[in-house]
Amino acid sequence: MKKILAAVASVIIAASAMAQDSGKNGFTFTEASELNIIGKLFPDTPNPYHRVDTCRFKGFTRGENEQVRCSAGLAVLFTTDSPAISVKSEYGYTNHGVNTMGISLRGYDLYIMRDGEWIYAASGGTDSKKNTLLIGNLPEGEKKCMLHLPIYSEMYSVKIGIRKGYDISPLESPFRHRVAVFGSSYTQGISTSRPGLSWPMQFMRNTGIQILSLGCSGNCKMQPYFADVLAAADVDAIIFDAFSNPDADMIRERLFPFIERLRKAHPDIPLIFIQTIYRESRNFNSSNDMREQAKMDAGAEMMAEAVKKYDNVYFVNTTSTGKGHETSVDGTHPSDMGYKAWAESIEKPVLKILRKYGLK
Asked: Can you give the pTM of this predicted structure?
């Protein structure tokens, strides 16, 4: 009996080894930075998957340093005729928050273009340095692909795998212009199920406008050093989710100096501020309700003055609340459907503003 069990175990181990060897030898890998990475504020960061060079820009807290080195909002564009696509990663910092799917925090989100539209194809997490199959049995012919990178992980390496004997090439970006977005956990995409479902990424796919995301969970408070980053970026417009993290007093204290710092650097581009959303934790908590309403009131009051005081400054209302107030994950952050409602609610007014500046 022992001999039989040993023989069975040997077969299982051998089969497992063959499967791993087949996966390893069946793919060739290309570093994503050799393809076409979009969504970057600065194209020349030493690590191609960092959003900000933290050796160049100073003032960040330890947590903010981690966040701006994460790949939230970055995507890789490529074409391939391979029948299967995989990914192999090497991580630095990784986040393991309980209110966001691991696929979003540490995984990938693949879209493939069909009939001129980006259509969801596959998503999945990946262990460090292991080859993870995202999708197989793809149709023959060339596929135009976009792979959204993790929202809350620092990537040392992202390798895209295709079957041996097939080709992979950079895809020229179909997205227009360079529109930066600075904001809170909402902008980073906390509580999404996959990386492509934050409101900036949904807005980008819906409109064809390239979004350069600088979402930093809990840390978007109109700090001067964040203004310095945005001031140094080559952008056509900036959208601000600026009233979600600071309290009412901070909004009143910091808004005008923040605008003036950016207005000096970018005198001719639109600065579009959007109102923070209604947090569902307010529904039956009077303390939360008062605090959140004070923030919304401060934002609205200050922006009423700002649009009169400064040229090229705008204020847009937004919503993520659906019927029955069912679009929240944790009382603070929207679900994927809530972020969808957010992106759709600002689409028309933001596009109208951008058109005034020839950004169509």
From this structure: 0.91
